Design the sequence.
């Protein structure tokens, strides 16, 4: 079983979000970088769990990013990826990124392609769906359980107001979310092994970006909390009705 | 032509799709072109009524086999319908289905894509759409460079606008591809308001001390007609089901009213709820960081404040 896990480098969940160069660029100053949580906790760890059950499985990692993405790639290798490919580009256009990963996916003939449900920086939730279209594969989004038996995968996914279980033939693209796997941390053996695992750097293939970011804005700050006397809930109801007009 | 994909759950058109319809109609007005809706599958609603949300025309691909999401078939059908209608803008709701389908449609139409859009496009100089980024902590203005654009509009961000049109409904025929997935089991949560569609949400955290204390929260939710949610520690401890977990790693919501009870307001929790229009925080700790992100705050014991609030809500409803 050949599994490809797409990983992305994102700012830590507690990072201060600020912008520079006239609000056109994310301010990376002092930012701690992590593997996008959905990619790590759910996509990668589920791939590792599957590999632990299937000795013939192997896991390739792919990321689109510059050399400063290498620490998070090494961490993913320490968790349990076998080999990694870094496509040397800093693009943040989803279509461009998906094209790059699709090129790697075509070459590697993977049976399962895992992505996180979205990245916590650009929140586009696009790469999995785009890959499925570029590779002409089925796509199951928001998966919280995934197993396979031979050539058939069983996937549980979130739908509006509940969950649905479906069967799909491999190869398939899956976007992963909470429930998919138990979070883990790399152990010392994994960290040592990751140092010598292959990390291949490739040049991007020809592709045109379809969007570009003109500027960033931060939402206006809240005007400050209005405190209501805990003994006067009628007043809170009045405020919600007459001032906020939400009930 | 602006084409709006109208999504359904259990053969009913969802509120988020009506918002997308209104949004698409506003774009069409701005561009001076026609706007149509596209419906796949069978629905119980009267499709001509989509005119009341701005549609001039409704294309309906009526086939029961299309009632469950299959991204591979859906994206092929929607892209074909968009080409047939000469659509230059294709609009989706940024909901569970829209998130899954829109990017594949964009690839098939060689279109630029903005998901999580939060504004109408600015067409003065090109075509620029604002979207939420960094989990609601910022906005990005995205220039779309392609002749065809695909936009998925955030839920509860544009609102449902009333029009006085009646739309003409046209059944269309596009060959339906062989399904790529087979649904074997459906588990619907019955009788609850789905969180992502709810306009009022009552949410509890560790401050409620245990699942046995959820009654006061459920009573408040019932009095308001609100959906219920919880913080991560609560779902991790199995006090409440996982599908109620809102936050960075759970689901992200943007209701009109979010009432947080006994939730301190960690940055990861805020990332899931910061797009709510009005936030009420009930916490006995005046230093709880959530008060900084709140519109209204009550510093007090939830076990006293929440039942009192429920009583006040019921009293106000009875007075009307």
Sequence:
């Amino acid at each position: 079983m050949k599994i490809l896990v797409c990983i992305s480098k994102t700012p830590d969940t507690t990072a201060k979000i600020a912008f520079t160069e006239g609000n056109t660029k994310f301010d990376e100053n002092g930012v701690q970088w992590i593997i996008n949580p959905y990619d790590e906790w759910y996509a990668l760890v589920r791939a590792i769990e599957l590999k632990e059950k299937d000795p013939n499985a192997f896991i390739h990692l792919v990321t689109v990013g510059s050399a400063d993405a290498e620490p998070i790639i090494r961490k993913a290798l320490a968790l349990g990826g076998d080999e990694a490919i870094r496509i040397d580009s800093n693009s943040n256009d989803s279509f461009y990124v998906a094209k790059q990963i699709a090129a790697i996916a075509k070459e590697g003939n993977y049976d399962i392609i895992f992505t996180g449900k979205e990245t916590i920086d650009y929140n586009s939730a696009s790469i999995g769906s785009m890959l499925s279209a570029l590779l002409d594969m089925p796509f199951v989004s928001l998966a919280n359980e995934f197993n396979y038996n031979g050539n058939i995968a069983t996937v549980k996914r979130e739908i509006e107001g509940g969950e649905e279980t479906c069967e799909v033939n491999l190869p398939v693209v899956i976007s992963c979310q909470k429930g998919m796997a138990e979070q883990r941390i790399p152990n010392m053996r994994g960290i040592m092994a990751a140092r010598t695992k292959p990390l291949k750097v490739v040049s991007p293939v020809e592709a045109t970006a379809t969007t570009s970011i003109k500027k960033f804005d931060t939402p206006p700050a809240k005007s400050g909390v209005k405190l209501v006397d805990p003994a006067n809930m009628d007043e809170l109801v009045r405020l919600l009705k007459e001032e906020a007009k939400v009930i | 032509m602006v084409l709006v994909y109208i999504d359904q759950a259990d053969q009913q058109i969802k509120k988020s799709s009506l918002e997308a319809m209104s949004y698409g109609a506003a774009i069409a007005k701005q561009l001076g072109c026609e706007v149509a809706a596209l419906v796949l599958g069978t629905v119980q609603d009267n499709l001509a009524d989509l005119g009341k949300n701005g549609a001039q025309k409704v294309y309906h691909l009526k086939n029961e086999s299309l009632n469950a999401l299959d991204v591979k078939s859906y994206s092929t059908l929607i892209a074909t319908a968009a080409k047939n209608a000469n659509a230059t803008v294709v609009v989706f709701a940024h909901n569970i289905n829209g998130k899954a389908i829109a990017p594949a449609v964009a690839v098939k139409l060689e279109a630029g894509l903005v998901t999580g859009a939060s504004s109408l496009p600015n067409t003065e100089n090109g075509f620029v759409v604002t979207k939420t980024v960094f989990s609601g902590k910022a906005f990005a203005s995205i220039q779309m460079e392609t002749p065809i654009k695909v936009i998925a509009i955030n839920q509860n961000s544009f609102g449902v606008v009333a029009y006085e049109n009646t739309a003409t409904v046209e059944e269309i025929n596009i060959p339906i591809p062989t399904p790529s997935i087979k649904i074997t089991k459906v588990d619907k949560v019955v009788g609850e308001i789905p969180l992502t569609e709810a306009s009022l949400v009552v949410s509890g955290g560790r401050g409620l001390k245990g699942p046995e204390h959820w009654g006061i929260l459920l009573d408040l939710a019932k009095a308001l007609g609100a959906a219920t949610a919880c913080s991560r520690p609560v779902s991790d401890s199995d006090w409440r089901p996982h599908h109620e977990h809102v936050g960075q790693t759970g689901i992200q919501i943007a209701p009109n009213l979010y009432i947080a009870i006994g939730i301190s307001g960690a940055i990861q929790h805020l990332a899931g709820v910061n797009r709510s229009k009005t936030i009420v925080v009930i916490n006995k700790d005046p230093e709880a960081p959530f008060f900084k992100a709140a519109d209204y705050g009550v510093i007090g014991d939830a076990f006293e404040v929440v039942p009192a609030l429920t009583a006040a809500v019921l009293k106000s409803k009875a007075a009307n």
Q: What stands out?
A: Chain B touches chain A through 100 residues (CB under 8 Å). Chain B has a mean pLDDT of 95. The longest helix of chain B spans residues 302-319.
